[in-house]
């Protein structure tokens, strides 16, 4: 099972970095076993507001989120994610939001997370492979 971080979804809609834009679009289009993490869905709507200067609207963001929910299972965190996140934050010195993301992957059966925000070596013990799709 695969998931993407918010930055991948934003790059897929932001043409200002053509290489990342193309790669993010390819990645999200070719992911039939994708999972949509609740946190990523929320962050996507919030971060997409920064794309208004390239003509991307909040209406588009909500429609695209709806489309993603049609093809990817939405993973909603339980109380257990908070407990795991606390362990991850303490063990790996992660921010709250980063530890919540990895914990949600663990709970949702996501084995690969595409993001440019983490070093994979930190998470080998979690069963979640971190892949930077832009390197």
Describe the structure.
This protein has helices spanning 6-11, 18-29, 38-47, 58-71, 79-92, 96-108; strands at residues 2-4, 34-37, 73-75, 112-114, 129-131. By secondary structure, the protein is an alpha/beta fold. The protein has a single domain (2-131), classed as 5'-nuclease (Rossmann fold, 3-Layer(aba) Sandwich). Strands 3-2-1-4-5 form a five-stranded parallel β-sheet, with helices on both faces. Helix 5 (79-92) packs across helix 6. The two termini are 21 Å apart. 33% of the residues are buried. The model has no long low-confidence stretch (mean pLDDT 92).
> Superfamily at the CATH H level?
5'-nuclease
Structural class: alpha/beta
What does the overall shape look like?
globular
Give the low-pLDDT segments.
Answer: none
Strand content: 5-15%
* Count of DSSP H/I helices: 6
Question: Could you give the topology of this structure?
Answer:
Layout (H helix, E strand, L loop, with lengths): L1 E3 L1 H6 L6 H12 L4 E4 H10 L10 H14 L1 E3 L3 H14 L3 H13 L3 E3 L14 E3 L4
Parallel strand pairs: 1-2, 1-4, 2-3, 4-5
Helix pairs in contact: 5-6
Keywords:
135 residues; alpha/beta; Rossmann fold; 5-stranded parallel sheet; 51% helix; globular
């Amino acid at each position: 099972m695969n998931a993407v971080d918010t930055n991948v979804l934003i790059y897929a809609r932001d043409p200002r970095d053509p290489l990342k834009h193309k790669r993010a679009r390819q990645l999200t289009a070719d992911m039939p076993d994708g999972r949509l993490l609740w946190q990523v869905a929320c962050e996507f709507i919030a971060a997409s507001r920064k794309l208004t200067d390239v003509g991307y609207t909040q209406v588009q963001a909500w429609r695209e989120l709806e489309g993603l929910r049609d093809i990817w299972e939405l993973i909603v965190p339980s109380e257990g994610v908070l407990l795991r996140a606390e362990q991850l934050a303490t063990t790996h010195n992660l921010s709250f939001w980063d530890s919540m993301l990895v914990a949600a992957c663990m709970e949702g059966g996501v084995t690969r997370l595409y993001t440019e925000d983490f070093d994979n070596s930190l998470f080998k013990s979690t069963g979640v492979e971190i892949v930077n799709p832009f390197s």
